[in-house]
Amino acid sequence: MRYDIGIIGLGVMGSNFAKNLINCNVSISAFDVDVMKAETAFKDYNSDQIRINESVQELCESLKKPRKILLIIPAGKIVDDVLGDLRKYLSAKDIIVDMGNSSHLDTIAREEKLSNQGLRYLGCGFSGGELGALNGPSLMLSGDYDAYEKISAYLKKAAAKDKFGNPCIGYIGKSGAGHFVKLVHNGIEYAELQLISEIYGFLKNKLNMNNVEVSEVFKKVSKGILESYLLRLASIILEFKDPEFPENFLLNRIKGEVQQKGTGFMISLESIRLKAVAPSIITSVLVRFMSNEGNVSRYRNQSEVNANEKMLNESEFVEKLRICLVMLKHLIYQQGFDLIKKSNEHYNWNISINNLINVWKKGSILESEFLYEIDKYDLDKNNILDNENVSSRIREMSLALKEVVKTLTEHEAYCPLISTTYQYWLSMTDENNSLNIIQGMRDAFGSHTFELEDREGAYHTNWLESEGEKVLIKIK
In CATH, what number is assigned to the domain containing residue 163? Predict the structure, then answer.
């Protein structure tokens, strides 16, 4: 018997996705270094559904041609090691799909190397976690389009379906684009998680709300455009009882030292490389670094401001918070989409943001009604805020954002993401830009030149000469 799809890597994600495909009547031939563990995970499945192999060679020999193999393994050197093994047993036109969180730069290099052998290599952004892998993930593929069409015939069956029944899988673009947009996805995810954290911290630490009360606030705001997977998840986690101490909540025992697997760090570096303005995303990554700095704990509990000293109408605040969240969401996504547009220029991709939004609508960690709302606009041509309807609403919402920032500041609440995103907004609305003085000073101490408001060209002047005529020198 020959099998439809090969899978290398049967950890939680790989096993769950294999079961998902089997449930969609796709036969699987798989390999994992822990053969016994893999066999145990699929002991209830018959050999017509899945075959567990003892070697990569055995797996390759068991597949229908052209062979289609999914790599669901950690990013890094292990991918190159597995590819080295596969090259011995594969032939021209066979397809390999990397479904891990590989760097788009590594994916580009690997595709070029494998194409010399006639192999077709696809990068696939995979979102949804272990439950998404089992029940329907969001899949973002890139590379050879013909190879995408052949593999997507199977993957569409297992992908999540949006509320209109459309599979949340898409061809994103040329080599590397699929893994890049997963980086952007994760950057937006970092920012949204940090935003939820700051609101939770304020309600808990400054308004003295308990877990259930905070959860109720999240439920109130998670309606309409703000209905989302992450807000639903936050409410569940807030109310989850401790299995060891059922009278308490498990969340209250968890350390606030946040880890990361590297994608936030990578997208922060990429935003700098592309000169894309993404302060909210970068701030959320830096906060994770700060959470692991042991010396920070010495300064905790030194705030002298609490809710008892400030009168705050909670219902009015929650409504302002809801409006504020809508605005912040627009601003965070604007930064993510700017990264994609800059990447199109830099890497000569042609990533469609509207196409990407459709892929994220269900199955992804970013799943939300917000995505259906912004999909009404042509975001490939314009930014979110360029739309006339959005622009007018955002300006109205900015007052609520200002009030929320003011309230959090008065209570000495920790809100780096909210504050940074507010400053990002001000950077777009400040009519009296003060950065011209930096250009003047750079020219004064380093002759770096400056541009003028009233004419084109780069200029320099003799700022520091105490004598002689002051002149503008046109450099180019």
Answer: 3.40.50.720
What is the pLDDT of the chain when averaged over all its residues? 92
The DSSP call for residue 240 is: P
- Per DSSP, 298 falls in state G
Interatomic CA distance for residues 143 and 277, integer angstroms: 27
Spatial separation of the C-alpha atoms in residues 102 and 266, rounded to whole Å: 10
Q: Which residue in this structure is represented by tokens 């075959």?
A: 51
The whole domain housing 10 covers 5-175
Please count the CA atoms within 13 angstroms of the CA of 75 that sit on its side-chain side: 20
Question: What is the DSSP annotation of 97-156?
Answer: EE-S---HHHHHHHHHHHHTTT-EEEEEEEESHHHHHHH--EEEEES-HHHHHHHHHHHH
Average pLDDT over residues 430-452: 89
Verify that 126 and 263 share a domain, yes or no: no
Rounded to an integer, what distance in angstroms lies between the CA atom of residue 205 and that of residue 207? 6
Residue with tokens 């949204």: 192
Quick check: 281 and 271 in contact, CB under 8 A? yes
308 & 164 share domain:
no
Return the amino acid letter for 301.
N
d(CA 336, CA 297): 32
Map 59-75 to HEC letters.
HHHCECCCCEEEECCCC
Question: Tens of pLDDT along 389-399?
Answer: 888 888 889 99
Q: What end-to-end distance do the CA atoms of the chain give, in Å?
A: 71
For residue 56, what are the contacts with CB-CB under 8 A and spacing of at least 6? 8, 31, 82, 85, 86, 89
Q: Which is it for strands 120-127 and 138-142: parallel, antiparallel or unpaired? A: antiparallel
Specify whether the backbone of 303 is left (phi greater than 0), alpha (psi in -120 to 50) or beta: beta
C-alpha dihedral (263, 269, 273, 276), degrees to nearest 10: 80
Distance CA 46, CA 33 (A): 21
For the chain, the helix, strand and coil percentages under 3-state DSSP, each to the nearest 5: 55, 10, 35
Same domain (yes/no): 148, 238:
no
Tell me what pLDDT residue 299 has.
54
Residues 230 and 333 grouped into a single domain: yes
How far apart CA 279 and CA 384 sit, in angstroms, is 17
> For residue 368, what is the domain's CATH number?
1.10.1040.10
Contact 7, 30 (CB under 8 A): yes
Quote the CA–CA distance of 403 and 401 in Å, as a whole number.
Answer: 5
Does the pLDDT value for residue 300 go beyond 80?
no
Residues 253 and 312 in one domain: yes
User: pTM, whole model, 2 decimals?
Assistant: 0.93
Length of the chain: 476
SS3 161: strand
Report the catalytic residues: 182, 189
* Helix 104-115 × helix 177-205 angle, to 10°: 160
